[in-house]
Amino acid sequence: MISRALTDSRAPSVSFLTDAALEFVNPLRGESGRLRASIQGRGEAVAEHALPSGTTATFSSGAAAESTKVLAAPSRTGIWSMAIALGNAIKPITDFSVITLMPATEKRRGRIGLYFIGNWPTRGGKASEKYAAPSGFIEVTRETQNTQLSDNFRLRDFLPHDQQNVWPKYVVVDMKMVDKLELVLTDLASRGIPSRGVRVMSGFRTPQYNSGAGDTGGRASLSRHMYGDASDIFIDNDGNGNMDDLNRDGRVNIGDARVILAAVNRVEAAHPSLIGGCGVYSGTSAHGPFTHIDTRGHPARW
After folding, report:
1. Which of 50, 82, 100 is the last residue of a domain?
2. Are strands 277-281 and 300-301 parallel, antiparallel or unpaired?
3. Omega of the bond prior to 168 within 30 degrees of 0, cis?
4. Is 165 in the same domain as 292?
5. Reported pTM
6. Distance in angstroms (rounded) separating the CA atoms of residues 51 and 3
Protein backbone atom coordinates (compact mmCIF):
# COMPACT_ATOMS: atom_id res chain seq x y z
CA MET A 1 0.00 0.00 0.00
CA ILE A 2 2.77 2.45 0.94
CA SER A 3 4.75 1.48 -2.16
CA ARG A 4 1.79 2.23 -4.44
CA ALA A 5 1.06 5.52 -2.71
CA LEU A 6 4.66 6.69 -2.91
CA THR A 7 4.72 6.22 -6.67
CA ASP A 8 1.33 7.90 -7.19
CA SER A 9 1.95 11.48 -8.37
CA ARG A 10 -1.34 12.55 -6.76
CA ALA A 11 -0.35 11.29 -3.29
CA PRO A 12 0.87 13.69 -0.58
CA SER A 13 4.53 12.53 -0.59
CA VAL A 14 5.51 13.87 2.82
CA SER A 15 2.60 12.13 4.50
CA PHE A 16 3.46 8.80 2.93
CA LEU A 17 7.16 9.27 3.64
CA THR A 18 6.17 9.59 7.28
CA ASP A 19 4.38 6.25 7.02
CA ALA A 20 7.39 4.72 5.28
CA ALA A 21 9.71 6.02 8.00
CA LEU A 22 7.51 4.53 10.72
CA GLU A 23 7.31 1.22 8.86
CA PHE A 24 11.11 1.13 8.74
CA VAL A 25 11.88 2.26 12.29
CA ASN A 26 9.15 0.66 14.41
CA PRO A 27 10.46 -2.94 14.13
CA LEU A 28 13.88 -1.68 15.27
CA ARG A 29 12.52 -0.17 18.49
CA GLY A 30 12.61 -3.53 20.25
CA GLU A 31 10.05 -5.27 22.42
CA SER A 32 9.96 -2.23 24.69
CA GLY A 33 9.23 0.14 21.81
CA ARG A 34 11.82 2.47 23.38
CA LEU A 35 15.03 1.76 21.45
CA ARG A 36 16.48 4.69 19.55
CA ALA A 37 19.43 3.08 17.79
CA SER A 38 20.35 0.04 15.75
CA ILE A 39 23.89 -1.38 15.79
CA GLN A 40 25.18 -2.97 12.57
CA GLY A 41 28.32 -4.16 10.89
CA ARG A 42 29.42 -1.95 8.03
CA GLY A 43 27.29 -2.63 4.95
CA GLU A 44 24.93 -5.03 6.75
CA ALA A 45 21.18 -4.95 6.21
CA VAL A 46 19.51 -2.54 8.64
CA ALA A 47 16.01 -4.00 8.38
CA GLU A 48 14.43 -7.20 7.13
CA HIS A 49 12.08 -5.53 4.66
CA ALA A 50 13.03 -3.39 1.66
CA LEU A 51 12.35 0.29 1.19
CA PRO A 52 9.19 1.11 -0.76
CA SER A 53 9.77 1.42 -4.50
CA GLY A 54 11.18 4.77 -5.54
CA THR A 55 12.50 5.78 -2.12
CA THR A 56 16.08 6.26 -0.96
CA ALA A 57 17.57 6.14 2.52
CA THR A 58 20.26 8.72 3.23
CA PHE A 59 22.66 8.38 6.17
CA SER A 60 24.66 11.34 7.45
CA SER A 61 27.39 11.68 10.07
CA GLY A 62 29.06 15.07 10.26
CA ALA A 63 30.24 15.89 6.74
CA ALA A 64 29.93 12.26 5.59
CA ALA A 65 26.85 11.01 3.76
CA GLU A 66 25.80 7.79 2.05
CA SER A 67 22.61 6.82 0.23
CA THR A 68 21.06 3.43 -0.43
CA LYS A 69 17.93 1.93 -1.96
CA VAL A 70 18.34 -1.44 -0.23
CA LEU A 71 18.54 -0.40 3.46
CA ALA A 72 22.15 -1.39 3.94
CA ALA A 73 24.13 0.24 6.75
CA PRO A 74 26.82 2.75 5.74
CA SER A 75 30.16 1.36 4.60
CA ARG A 76 32.10 3.42 7.14
CA THR A 77 32.28 3.30 10.93
CA GLY A 78 30.20 5.95 12.66
CA ILE A 79 26.96 7.06 14.25
CA TRP A 80 24.52 8.06 11.55
CA SER A 81 21.26 9.95 11.37
CA MET A 82 18.85 8.89 8.67
CA ALA A 83 16.28 10.30 6.29
CA ILE A 84 13.98 8.74 3.70
CA ALA A 85 13.54 10.59 0.41
CA LEU A 86 11.18 10.41 -2.55
CA GLY A 87 11.99 12.86 -5.29
CA ASN A 88 12.26 16.29 -3.68
CA ALA A 89 10.38 15.21 -0.55
CA ILE A 90 12.45 14.10 2.43
CA LYS A 91 11.54 12.80 5.90
CA PRO A 92 14.30 12.92 8.54
CA ILE A 93 14.07 10.26 11.25
CA THR A 94 15.00 12.55 14.10
CA ASP A 95 14.94 10.18 17.08
CA PHE A 96 16.84 7.19 15.73
CA SER A 97 20.50 6.45 14.91
CA VAL A 98 22.21 3.72 12.93
CA ILE A 99 25.57 2.82 14.49
CA THR A 100 28.14 1.03 12.33
CA LEU A 101 30.93 -0.88 14.04
CA MET A 102 34.68 -0.66 13.82
CA PRO A 103 35.77 -4.20 12.80
CA ALA A 104 37.64 -6.09 15.51
CA THR A 105 40.34 -6.80 12.93
CA GLU A 106 41.49 -3.20 13.50
CA LYS A 107 42.68 -4.16 17.00
CA ARG A 108 46.47 -4.39 17.24
CA ARG A 109 48.24 -5.78 20.31
CA GLY A 110 45.11 -5.27 22.36
CA ARG A 111 44.53 -1.68 21.23
CA ILE A 112 42.66 0.36 18.69
CA GLY A 113 44.55 3.61 18.43
CA LEU A 114 45.43 4.69 21.97
CA TYR A 115 42.52 2.85 23.57
CA PHE A 116 43.59 -0.29 25.43
CA ILE A 117 41.02 -3.08 25.13
CA GLY A 118 42.93 -6.29 25.83
CA ASN A 119 42.02 -9.75 24.59
CA TRP A 120 39.00 -11.93 25.29
CA PRO A 121 39.49 -15.18 27.18
CA THR A 122 38.04 -18.44 25.91
CA ARG A 123 35.85 -20.78 27.89
CA GLY A 124 37.72 -23.96 28.69
CA GLY A 125 40.16 -23.17 25.92
CA LYS A 126 37.43 -23.18 23.30
CA ALA A 127 35.20 -20.19 22.62
CA SER A 128 31.49 -20.89 22.39
CA GLU A 129 29.17 -18.53 20.50
CA LYS A 130 28.19 -16.72 23.69
CA TYR A 131 31.83 -16.32 24.72
CA ALA A 132 33.32 -15.48 21.34
CA ALA A 133 35.21 -12.21 21.07
CA PRO A 134 33.12 -9.37 19.60
CA SER A 135 33.30 -8.91 15.84
CA GLY A 136 33.28 -5.13 16.12
CA PHE A 137 33.17 -2.11 18.42
CA ILE A 138 31.20 1.11 18.69
CA GLU A 139 33.57 4.03 18.24
CA VAL A 140 32.69 6.64 20.88
CA THR A 141 34.03 10.19 20.75
CA ARG A 142 33.56 13.07 23.18
CA GLU A 143 30.91 14.37 20.80
CA THR A 144 29.00 11.11 20.26
CA GLN A 145 29.01 9.80 23.84
CA ASN A 146 25.61 11.43 24.40
CA THR A 147 23.97 9.46 21.58
CA GLN A 148 20.61 8.20 22.79
CA LEU A 149 20.40 4.39 22.63
CA SER A 150 16.90 4.33 24.10
CA ASP A 151 14.49 6.61 25.91
CA ASN A 152 16.40 6.28 29.20
CA PHE A 153 19.96 5.36 28.22
CA ARG A 154 22.82 7.02 26.35
CA LEU A 155 26.08 5.56 25.08
CA ARG A 156 27.99 7.22 27.92
CA ASP A 157 26.02 5.18 30.47
CA PHE A 158 27.80 2.00 29.37
CA LEU A 159 31.40 3.25 29.06
CA PRO A 160 34.14 1.63 31.17
CA HIS A 161 35.38 3.74 34.08
CA ASP A 162 39.08 3.73 33.18
CA GLN A 163 41.04 5.64 30.48
CA GLN A 164 38.94 8.72 31.16
CA ASN A 165 41.00 10.99 28.90
CA VAL A 166 41.48 8.58 25.99
CA TRP A 167 39.25 9.23 22.96
CA PRO A 168 37.87 7.69 20.91
CA LYS A 169 36.84 4.71 23.00
CA TYR A 170 35.76 1.35 21.57
CA VAL A 171 32.93 -0.45 23.33
CA VAL A 172 30.37 -3.23 22.94
CA VAL A 173 26.68 -2.74 23.74
CA ASP A 174 24.00 -5.35 23.03
CA MET A 175 20.71 -3.62 22.20
CA LYS A 176 18.74 -6.61 23.52
CA MET A 177 20.15 -5.79 26.94
CA VAL A 178 19.12 -2.14 26.57
CA ASP A 179 15.66 -3.30 25.46
CA LYS A 180 15.39 -5.46 28.58
CA LEU A 181 16.44 -2.58 30.84
CA GLU A 182 13.71 -0.41 29.32
CA LEU A 183 11.10 -3.12 29.94
CA VAL A 184 12.25 -3.43 33.56
CA LEU A 185 11.87 0.33 34.04
CA THR A 186 8.40 0.23 32.48
CA ASP A 187 7.42 -2.58 34.84
CA LEU A 188 8.70 -0.65 37.86
CA ALA A 189 6.88 2.50 36.74
CA SER A 190 3.63 0.53 36.49
CA ARG A 191 4.09 -0.24 40.19
CA GLY A 192 4.66 3.35 41.21
CA ILE A 193 8.48 3.43 41.00
CA PRO A 194 9.63 6.18 38.59
CA SER A 195 12.54 5.40 36.28
CA ARG A 196 13.98 8.89 35.77
CA GLY A 197 16.74 8.20 38.30
CA VAL A 198 18.06 4.95 36.84
CA ARG A 199 21.86 4.74 37.05
CA VAL A 200 24.21 2.27 35.37
CA MET A 201 26.93 1.49 37.90
CA SER A 202 28.79 -0.78 35.48
CA GLY A 203 28.12 -1.41 31.80
CA PHE A 204 30.67 -2.61 29.27
CA ARG A 205 34.07 -3.68 30.58
CA THR A 206 37.07 -4.25 28.36
CA PRO A 207 38.93 -7.48 29.17
CA GLN A 208 41.87 -5.49 30.51
CA TYR A 209 39.57 -3.49 32.82
CA ASN A 210 37.67 -6.57 33.97
CA SER A 211 40.85 -8.39 34.92
CA GLY A 212 42.90 -5.65 36.50
CA ALA A 213 41.45 -2.15 36.84
CA GLY A 214 39.55 -0.72 39.79
CA ASP A 215 38.05 -2.99 42.44
CA THR A 216 38.07 -6.44 40.84
CA GLY A 217 36.31 -8.12 43.76
CA GLY A 218 33.30 -10.12 42.60
CA ARG A 219 34.16 -9.93 38.91
CA ALA A 220 33.89 -13.18 36.96
CA SER A 221 36.73 -13.99 34.58
CA LEU A 222 34.10 -14.56 31.87
CA SER A 223 31.88 -11.68 32.97
CA ARG A 224 29.01 -10.89 30.63
CA HIS A 225 30.02 -7.24 30.99
CA MET A 226 32.88 -7.97 28.56
CA TYR A 227 30.35 -9.02 25.92
CA GLY A 228 28.20 -5.91 26.20
CA ASP A 229 25.04 -7.70 27.33
CA ALA A 230 25.18 -6.94 31.07
CA SER A 231 24.61 -3.92 33.29
CA ASP A 232 24.58 -3.25 37.02
CA ILE A 233 21.86 -0.73 37.83
CA PHE A 234 20.17 1.02 40.73
CA ILE A 235 17.34 3.54 40.98
CA ASP A 236 18.32 6.93 42.41
CA ASN A 237 15.35 9.26 42.00
CA ASP A 238 16.43 11.47 44.90
CA GLY A 239 19.88 12.02 43.38
CA ASN A 240 21.96 11.08 46.42
CA GLY A 241 24.13 8.61 44.49
CA ASN A 242 22.64 5.57 46.18
CA MET A 243 19.77 3.12 45.69
CA ASP A 244 16.38 4.44 46.76
CA ASP A 245 14.10 2.75 49.27
CA LEU A 246 12.13 0.94 46.58
CA ASN A 247 10.20 -1.38 48.90
CA ARG A 248 9.36 1.52 51.23
CA ASP A 249 10.44 -0.27 54.40
CA GLY A 250 12.40 2.73 55.68
CA ARG A 251 15.80 1.18 54.88
CA VAL A 252 18.09 0.96 51.86
CA ASN A 253 19.54 -2.53 51.53
CA ILE A 254 19.57 -5.64 49.35
CA GLY A 255 15.79 -5.83 49.68
CA ASP A 256 15.56 -2.86 47.31
CA ALA A 257 17.74 -4.65 44.76
CA ARG A 258 15.26 -7.54 44.99
CA VAL A 259 12.46 -5.19 43.90
CA ILE A 260 14.32 -4.83 40.58
CA LEU A 261 14.88 -8.60 40.48
CA ALA A 262 11.12 -9.14 40.77
CA ALA A 263 10.62 -6.81 37.80
CA VAL A 264 13.22 -8.77 35.82
CA ASN A 265 11.35 -12.01 36.57
CA ARG A 266 8.10 -10.53 35.25
CA VAL A 267 9.81 -9.15 32.13
CA GLU A 268 11.45 -12.47 31.30
CA ALA A 269 8.14 -14.31 31.73
CA ALA A 270 6.54 -11.95 29.22
CA HIS A 271 9.56 -11.70 26.88
CA PRO A 272 11.40 -15.04 26.80
CA SER A 273 13.74 -13.88 24.03
CA LEU A 274 15.36 -11.61 26.64
CA ILE A 275 16.01 -14.30 29.26
CA GLY A 276 19.33 -14.05 31.07
CA GLY A 277 21.01 -13.55 34.40
CA CYS A 278 20.02 -11.42 37.36
CA GLY A 279 21.85 -11.05 40.65
CA VAL A 280 21.34 -8.83 43.69
CA TYR A 281 24.17 -7.26 45.66
CA SER A 282 24.37 -5.63 49.07
CA GLY A 283 25.89 -2.23 49.61
CA THR A 284 29.51 -1.80 50.69
CA SER A 285 31.63 1.14 51.79
CA ALA A 286 32.24 1.83 48.08
CA HIS A 287 28.69 1.60 46.72
CA GLY A 288 25.07 0.97 47.63
CA PRO A 289 23.00 -2.09 46.72
CA PHE A 290 22.48 -2.80 43.04
CA THR A 291 21.05 -5.36 40.62
CA HIS A 292 22.92 -7.09 37.79
CA ILE A 293 20.87 -7.73 34.62
CA ASP A 294 22.02 -9.51 31.46
CA THR A 295 20.71 -11.27 28.34
CA ARG A 296 23.00 -14.31 28.26
CA GLY A 297 20.25 -16.46 26.71
CA HIS A 298 19.53 -18.80 29.62
CA PRO A 299 18.20 -18.11 33.12
CA ALA A 300 20.62 -17.57 36.00
CA ARG A 301 19.97 -16.13 39.46
CA TRP A 302 22.22 -15.31 42.38
Report:
1. 100
2. parallel
3. yes
4. yes
5. 0.91
6. 8
